[in-house]
Amino acid sequence: GASLYVRVTSLSAGLDLAVASNTFAVVSGVMHSMSVIESPADSVGYEALLGSVVVAIRDANANNFSCDASISAFLRASDRSSLPSDGPSLEGTTTVDYLASSGTAEFSDLNVK
User: What is the distance between the alpha carbons of residues 102 and 63, in angstroms, rounded to a whole number?
Assistant: First the structure.
């Protein structure tokens, strides 16, 4: 939490007073961006990805966004087109909980088949 302090100083009256408000919560603003902050290294197909995928959600001031959410991972071609139905697929835990306390969601057991 936070408190707002107000200070009054009067040299002529010899005053130097400060008062604090009640404690209040400072919450994040609306969701502004989501980004991958850790990406896996180049990996071999049909094996676990080398490294976790970590996603962060931030407000407009780059603060962790506080919310209850789940985040899903999926594959898409680099040119943003859909992959063919007989193409590679993502396996493992593809939906994870977003942890508002850390501002991240981590996919740790993905592999491409």
Answer: 10
In angstroms, the Cα distances linking 38 to 15, 17, 30, 41, 77 are 54, 49, 23, 9, 19
The Cα–Cα gap between 44 and 32 comes to 34
Integer CA distances (angstroms), 68 to 47, 52, 64, in order: 31, 21, 12
Q: Tens-of-pLDDT digits for all 113 residues of the chain?
A: 677 777 887 777 778 888 888 887 766 677 788 888 998 888 877 788 888 899 988 888 887 887 778 888 888 777 766 666 777 788 899 899 887 777 888 999 988 88
Task: Give the three-state DSSP class for 67.
Answer: coil
8 Å CB contact between 64 and 34: no
Helix (H, G, I), strand (E, B) or coil at 70: strand
